[in-house]
Design a protein that fits this description.
By secondary structure, this protein is of the alpha/beta class. The chain contains 15 helices and 17 strands. It has 3 domains: about 200 residues, Rossmann fold; about 70 residues; about 210 residues, Rossmann fold. The strands form 4 sheets. The chain has a 6-stranded mixed sheet with strand order 5-6-7-3-8-9, with helices on both faces. It has a 6-stranded mixed sheet with strand order 13-14-15-12-16-17, with helices on both faces. A 3-stranded antiparallel sheet has the order 2-1-4, covered by helices on one side. It starts with a strand and ends in an 11-residue tail after the last strand.
């Protein structure tokens, strides 16, 4: 199978080592997830395995990637937008061997992605497909070539809960190994039987990796238990060392005082004290040697996220939103409009946290945009909006520091750099164009901007979609503790369960409240 030997990846721009001496074998039956914080090289690793030319403009590498004629199917993190004007049939026609497929093979590929076989001959434009349909089309295209292994980069992005559950079944049911990246903890917990964890330690100056052939949940439990035990032992040994050194200093000072006060009339006593001092110094050196070899507090990349001001609070009786929309529509294919929903009513009072869910293509993001338009200009609240497409709010040519600068004063820039540093941006990344940052890093900029602005109402479209499964628990805790109101769109089942007070399903007839025990089982409605 696929084998990687002593792989080292280095960024060309800042010469930062992303991965060092990485070795791994993808075996039959493996469903391996690659996890790590934002910007740690997960997508770079997957691209490099599939085709080194995909990273040659920004990364160098050494080592071996042994494929032994293994046929790989690769799903990119984002579909090429140049394909959106093509029809489904045009897309499939460009896949080598499509027209040589038997009806049985077409049926099997269609069954695997939950679509009818004639779907592949459809004249529907790809740009009109939902996020889940785009993923299914690309996966079907990979299956046409009968791959020996699949490399999937964020297949869970931008797909609804029903499609997420389908994707879990697809990964588990695929007969060959799968190496994938995902930020969806529930999907990872339900599929991965092995974990590759990429870390950047010591402020991204030291790369580290762990390979664990256990399910994700078990890996996290064992890692946390191991680190907690190591920290406990390290602190205990450090406390004992400090006690030893205190005793040592007391003995040293006593002998040193005796040496300084002894008279020349007692040469024998002086010799004994010098001998004793030599023994004391030897003891001190032994303590220092033992200290160097004692257990260290575990060096791990912590998920860090800035906190909102604890003084932010919305009174419970405060009307945050009283929204009505006769119809929700988007431009239609023929130049008219396509109505997605009618008679939408949403009232929100106090520090409530609600989530709008629904199938892909029902208009959730469009609705949140409409709500944001009605709230951002208000003066009685301070609303902030995080769109699904970060480019709507970020100038990709600007630097992270430049994004926040208002006065240009030195003190302001220092404050900004301090905040960015606390979120694990390196000095080099602070000077990079925003367009070169990872999705998670861009999301951090938007969150930090909300904090700087003192927002008390957050409008969040898929807020956890680009954060690692290790960061998302931290973000959920921050948003759960937030004293203001939150109106969100999300397919993240853990986010819905842990953060949201209420869940609303967007239908053709408006918003429908969902029972608390069913809001993560949308497909059953």
């Amino acid at each position: 199978m696929l084998q990687i030997k002593n792989l080292t990846i280095t960024h060309k721009k800042d010469l930062r080592t992303v991965l060092e001496n990485f070795s791994y074998v993808l075996n039959p039956g493996d469903k391996t997830v690659i996890i790590g914080e934002e910007g740690n090289g997960k997508s770079t690793l997957l691209k490099l395995i599939y085709d080194p030319s995909l990273v040659e403009d920004y990364a160098d590498y050494s080592g071996e990637i042994v494929k032994d004629n293994v046929k790989l199917g690769y799903l990119a993190q984002e579909m090429d937008k140049n394909l959106f004007s093509q029809t489904i049939l045009e897309y499939c026609s460009q896949i080598p061997g499509f027209y040589e497929l038997s009806q049985g093979e077409l049926y099997e590929a269609a069954r695997s992605v939950g679509r009818p076989a004639d779907w592949f001959y459809s004249q529907q434009q790809i740009g009109t497909l939902s996020g889940g349909e785009k993923v299914k089309l690309q996966l079907a295209g990979l299956l046409f070539s009968h791959p020996d292994a699949l490399l999937l980069d964020e297949p869970s992005n931008d797909i609804d809960i029903a499609t997420l559950e389908w994707l879990e079944e697809f990964i588990n049911g695929f007969r060959n190994p799968v190496l994938f990246i995902s930020h969806d903890e529930t999907l990872i917990e339900h599929t991965a039987n092995a974990v590759i964890h990429l870390e950047q330690l010591r402020r991204k100056t030291l790369s580290s990796y762990t390979v664990a052939n256990v399910p994700y949940a078990q890996y996290i439990r064992e890692r946390e238990s191991r680190m907690a035990h190591q920290e406990q032992v390290a602190r205990k040994e450090e406390a004992e060392y400090q006690k030893q050194m205190e005793r040592y200093r007391q003995i040293y000072e006593k002998v040193d005082h005796q040496l300084n006060t002894i008279t020349r009339a007692d040469p024998g006593g002086a010799r004994l004290l010098k001998k004793k001092m030599k023994s004391v110094k030897s003891m001190g050196k032994r303590f220092e040697r033992d200290h160097e070899n004692q257990t260290q507090i575990p060096d791990a990349e912590e998920a860090i996220f800035a906190m909102f001001d604890e003084s932010i609070a919305i009174p419970r009786g405060k009307a945050v939103l009283d929204f009505h929309l006769d119809e929700l529509s988007v431009p239609g294919d023929s130049g008219g409009k396509r109505i997605l929903s009618r008679n939408i009513n949403l009232f929100l009072a106090g520090p409530r946290k609600i989530c709008i869910v629904g199938d892909n293509g029902t208009g959730k993001s469009t609705l949140l945009r409409e709500i944001a338009g009605s709230m951002l200009e208000r003066t009685d609240i301070h609303a902030a909006y995080m769109p699904q497409n970060y480019e709507d709010m970020l100038d990709l040519g600007q630097t992270p520091v430049g994004f926040f600068v208002r006065t240009g004063e030195k003190e302001e820039r220092t404050r900004i750099q301090t905040f960015l540093g606390s979120l694990k941006f390196t000095p080099e990344e602070m000077g990079h164009p925003i367009g070169r940052l990872s999705g998670g890093q861009k999301a951090k900029l938007l969150f930090l901007n909300m904090i700087f602005e003192g927002a008390d109402v957050l409008l969040l479209d898929e807020p956890t979609r680009n954060f690692s499964p290790l960061s998302n628990p931290v973000i959920r805790r921050v948003l759960k503790k937030f004293g203001g109101a939150v109106i969100s769109v999300s397919h993240d089942r853990k986010f819905i369960e842990e953060v949201c007070d209420e869940c609303l399903l967007l239908t053709k007839d408006g918003l429908e409240a969902i029972e608390a025990d069913s809001h993560t089982r949308q497909d059953s409605l």
